[in-house]
């Protein structure tokens, strides 16, 4: 939620938001490292029941289900049934806390995290590009607001969940490739449980990987919109953001708003400096938040 620029109201709201976040962090996030998985799920179901009483479409049931991989192996994902009967898939039961108030609430939280919830260009958006869509919380939300959602998710396990969660949503196009600077086949390291799968491999020794097609964004995305569209991009490429931007130079020229997670995911280093330079070269007015979200916006 965003508030008017009244300093008293803003200060109070921030303080209240900080208290709520601290309480949630203590009760839900921290307990994930203290409880067994079984007891953590029990805690989530208890909180879900309380939230259901308060009117949220929360979690009624969690179960582990195996999905087949191209290698012939299987991987257990978490299948969630909400009180409404809607079913979702996540890569890990630990991440189920994101869905306690429903999948669209999880999408709203992502917009808030990327600090674009109240941007006019998001309101006017007709094509939304979700680079690193994971299991689709944000793509699901934006599919209700825009004409086309392009959901790019290279992780085969996360993409299985993404496709399940967006099944029947006609205006979402799921793309299985990774985006980069060159068209190539590269090693993609799999860390689906923590949503950290990446092409950047300096700290991934011993991590399982698949050989994955990498495509330039300009080669695969431009055909989905016209010069009349208002294009918004959200990007979380796990340390590979500069390469993704270099491969979509034409697309950037037609983009109205872009928000990028440029946190310390490239061997412990941030990609902020490189991304800012690339966005400025593309004509964006750029700001960087204290949480290392890099935002590029066009003035006109």
Q: Could you explain how this protein is built, in words?
A:
The chain is built from eleven helices and 13 strands. By secondary structure, the protein is an alpha/beta fold. The protein has a seven-stranded mixed sheet, sandwiched between helices. The protein is globular. The two termini are 26 Å apart. The model is unreliable at 1-28 (pLDDT under 50).
Give the topology, please.
Blueprint: H1 7-29, H2 31-34, H3 37-53, E1 59-68, E2 74-82, E3 87-90, H4 103-113, H5 120-124, E4 127-131, H6 137-142, E5 148-152, H7 156-165, E6 172-175, E7 178-180, E8 184-189, E9 209-216, H8 217-220, E10 231-235, H9 241-246, H10 249-253, E11 257-261, H11 272-281, E12 285-288, E13 293-297
Parallel strand pairs: 4-5, 4-10, 5-6, 7-9, 10-11
Antiparallel strand pairs: 1-2, 2-3, 8-9, 11-13, 12-13
In a nutshell, what does this entry contain?
34% of the residues lie in helices and 24% in strands. The chain is an alpha/beta fold and 300 residues long.
User: Which class do the helix and strand fractions yield?
Assistant: alpha/beta
Counted by DSSP, the helix tally is 11
Strand content: 15-25%
Biggest sheet architecture: 7 strands, mixed
Fold-level CATH name of the largest domain: Rossmann fold
Shape: globular
**Tally of structural domains:** 2
> How many E-type strands?
13
* Unreliable stretches covering 5 or more consecutive residues: 1-28
- CATH H-level name of the largest domain... which superfamily? Vaccinia Virus protein VP39
